[in-house]
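Late entry, evening session. Most of the bench is empty. Finally got around to the prediction I had been postponing all week. Sequence below, unchanged from the version circulated by S.P.
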Amino acid sequence: MTNNSFSGSKYVRRGEANHDAEFSCSVQELRSLMELRGEEAVARIQESYSEVNGLCARLRTSPVDGLDGKSEDIDRRKEVFGLNIIPPKKPKTFLQLVWEALQDVTLIILEVAAIISLGLSFYHPPDAERQNCGSAAGGVDDESEAEAGWIEGAAILLSVVCVVLVTAFNDWSKEKQFRGLQNRIEQEQKFTVVRGGQVIQIKVSEIVVGDIAQVKYGDLLPADGVLIQGNDLKIDESSLTGESDHVKKNLDKDPMLLSGTHVMEGSGKMVVTAVGVNSQSGIIFTLLGAGDEGDNEDKKDKKKEEHKRKDSKGKKSKFSRIESYFT
C-alpha cells in the first residue's frame, strides 16, 4: 500500500496551489480526470498520480481499508467535494400548470369563440335600425333572445375554466406523487463501501469522494470512480453514451467508471472521485436544467467582464485619438 505522506514530493507541490490544503486534489482536477476515456485516462493517471494508489493517497484514503469513517472526515469531504445528491428542479406552481393547460389549441379556439359571442350579445345597433328591424319582425321573442344571448358565451368560458382547472390539478397531483416516490427510492437505495477495513452498506446519498466502493453484477453506479481492482468487469454505458455494447473495464485500458451506468458482468472495487453535480450524470442533469440558476449567474458574470473589457478598450481608443490629435 502506498504511503499517505507526500511531504516534499511533486504531489504536495501541486496540492499547494489548490484551495484545499487538506486534500491534494481539487474538484475541477477530478472532474477533468473523469472526462477522459481509455488510454488517455490511463496516461493521465500515470502522469499525475503514478498509479491509482497515488490517487488514493492524494485523496487521503486507503485502497484496502477505505476511509476511517470518522464523522469529522466525512463532513469535511462533503464540504469540499459536495454531497452525492443532484438537486431536483423546483416544482411547478399550480398557476404555472394552469397557464400550460391554457396553451391547448382547442381551448384557445373556444376562448376566442366565447369572447366573440359575448361581444355580439352586448352589442346593440342604432335606434333607427332597431325600429326598422322591430317593425319588420314585429316580435317580442327576438328581444328576449337578444337579452339572453350572453348565456352561450358565458357557458363556453365556464366549460373552458373547468377543463383547465381539472387538467392543472391532475398534473399537480401526479408531480407530487412522483416526487414522493423518487424521495422514497433515494432514501431506501444503499451501496456497499469499505470503511475502517469493514464492508458496510450505506445510503447512496452518504457516499463521499475517497470512499472505496465495491461494484458487482446488477449494480447501478451512484458516483464516478476509478477502478482499483476488477474481475471480468463489463459496464453498460448506454445511458450516457448511447452505445449498446458492453464496455470492458480494467486497469490497463479503461479504468474509468461513471455514475448512472449498470454493471453487467464481473465485480471489482473503485475509489470514488466525483459525486452529485460533479459526477458525469450530475453534469448532464445540470445541462438539462437542474443548475439553471448557477449557469445564469456565470453567464451574467461573463457578460459583465466582457462589458468592462469593451469599455476599457473604448476609453483607450478615445484617449489615443485625442493624443494623436494634439501631437
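Two things to note before I forget:
The radius of gyration is 33 Å.
The beta strands are 190-195, 198-203, 212-216, 224-236, 247-249, 256-257, 262-274.
Will write this up properly tomorrow.
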